[in-house]
Amino acid sequence: MNSPRDVVIRPIVSEKSYAGLELNTYTFLVAPGSNKTEIKQAIQQIWNV
What is the mean pLDDT of residues 28-45? Predict the structure, then answer.
């Protein structure tokens, strides 16, 4: 299994992503080939949610 930081590379900072913050929607650049389960687990481990 990859490290959580290998799956979630960085947040995307743009006008469109800032508009999503009002709706509690966050945007991240993730590694190609990552599936939803891996991304969910990585987010939970990095930010303890």
Answer: 96
